[in-house]
Amino acid sequence: MSCVPVRGCRIGEGRPKVILPIVERTEAAILEKAAAFSTLCADCVEWRVDLFDAAADPGAVVRCLAKLRVLLKEKLLLVTLRTKEEGGSIPVSHEGYLRFLRTVLDTDCADLIDIEFFTAGTDLPALVQDAHTAGVKVVCSSHDFHKTPPKAELVSRMVAMHQAGADLPKLAVMPQSRADVLELLAATAEMTDHHPETPVITMSMGPLGAVSRLCGEAFGSAMTFANPGTASAPGQVGLDVVNAVLDSLQLN
Ligand SMILES: O=C1C[C@@](O)(C(=O)O)C[C@@H](O)[C@@H]1O
């Protein structure tokens, strides 16, 4: 699998990189979490801006981002505005979504930015270009909180994300059966074996899918979201357990 280097971190190589989500509502609480997370054993912190009570105020977002950047020290910062359609907290118009992404890219604070595949639509290649010009890597995401599409569809979605220029295609899907968890893992393995030109991030959500958050090195998911106390999605496993299992399942 090829890797995406971001500062000192080689995403897609070796042990999956661990992401801790910040899901607080106020700036004070967000910054408090950032300071605490900066000392934990994890590679990256995700700021879920849709949960911020001032998410609609670009000035407040920019100010908070600048402070986060400093507090997180060498940890990578992934910035995510999860729209209501994809399981997030706020409804955002297409124009509003594009404006938000461009505001974040202008700050020089993010290492990685989440761009939703379906929300970006035909604007995706241009947004990826803008991110790359700003020196930011793109996590291109798609979520299904109700079901798991068939493997062929999962694979073709990740390939389309890569073809649009995304650095890290990402899928989060909900299993309705054990077979659905296997479907997600099979799609992940197929990407690793047949499309090694791009690392991917995949997870099957909920308790049934939690196993998929722990076996990324074996099947080919380059990053995993861990629960540092408050989960940002169903099925996230506690940080200590994630670290212990990733260590014990290391291939080399
Ligand atoms: O897209 C994702 C993945 C996620 O939904 C999960 O299932 O771990 C958690 C979200 O915070 C993140 O933005």
From TrEMBL:
<comment type="pathway">
    <text>Metabolic intermediate biosynthesis; chorismate biosynthesis; chorismate from D-erythrose 4-phosphate and phosphoenolpyruvate: step 3/7.</text>
</comment>
<feature type="active site" description="Proton donor/acceptor">
    <location>
        <position position="143"/>
    </location>
</feature>
<dbReference type="Pfam" id="PF01487">
    <property type="entry name" value="DHquinase_I"/>
</dbReference>
<feature type="binding site">
    <location>
        <position position="213"/>
    </location>
    <ligand>
        <name>3-dehydroquinate</name>
    </ligand>
</feature>
<comment type="function">
    <text>Involved in the third step of the chorismate pathway, which leads to the biosynthesis of aromatic amino acids. Catalyzes the cis-dehydration of 3-dehydroquinate (DHQ) and introduces the first double bond of the aromatic ring to yield 3-dehydroshikimate.</text>
</comment>
<feature type="active site" description="Schiff-base intermediate with substrate">
    <location>
        <position position="170"/>
    </location>
</feature>
<dbReference type="GO" id="GO:0009073">
    <property type="term" value="P:aromatic amino acid family biosynthetic process"/>
</dbReference>
<dbReference type="GO" id="GO:0009423">
    <property type="term" value="P:chorismate biosynthetic process"/>
</dbReference>
<dbReference type="InterPro" id="IPR013785">
    <property type="entry name" value="Aldolase_TIM"/>
</dbReference>
<dbReference type="InterPro" id="IPR050146">
    <property type="entry name" value="Type-I_3-dehydroquinase"/>
</dbReference>
<comment type="similarity">
    <text>Belongs to the type-I 3-dehydroquinase family.</text>
</comment>
<dbReference type="GO" id="GO:0008652">
    <property type="term" value="P:amino acid biosynthetic process"/>
</dbReference>
<dbReference type="GO" id="GO:0003855">
    <property type="term" value="F:3-dehydroquinate dehydratase activity"/>
</dbReference>
<comment type="subunit">
    <text>Homodimer.</text>
</comment>
<keyword id="KW-0456">Lyase</keyword>
<feature type="binding site">
    <location>
        <position position="232"/>
    </location>
    <ligand>
        <name>3-dehydroquinate</name>
    </ligand>
</feature>
<feature type="binding site">
    <location>
        <position position="82"/>
    </location>
    <ligand>
        <name>3-dehydroquinate</name>
    </ligand>
</feature>
<keyword id="KW-0028">Amino-acid biosynthesis</keyword>
<protein>
    <recommendedName>
        <fullName>3-dehydroquinate dehydratase</fullName>
        <ecNumber>4.2.1.10</ecNumber>
    </recommendedName>
</protein>
<dbReference type="GO" id="GO:0046279">
    <property type="term" value="P:3,4-dihydroxybenzoate biosynthetic process"/>
</dbReference>
<keyword id="KW-0057">Aromatic amino acid biosynthesis</keyword>
<feature type="binding site">
    <location>
        <begin position="46"/>
        <end position="48"/>
    </location>
    <ligand>
        <name>3-dehydroquinate</name>
    </ligand>
</feature>
<feature type="binding site">
    <location>
        <position position="236"/>
    </location>
    <ligand>
        <name>3-dehydroquinate</name>
    </ligand>
</feature>
<keyword id="KW-0704">Schiff base</keyword>
<dbReference type="InterPro" id="IPR001381">
    <property type="entry name" value="DHquinase_I"/>
</dbReference>
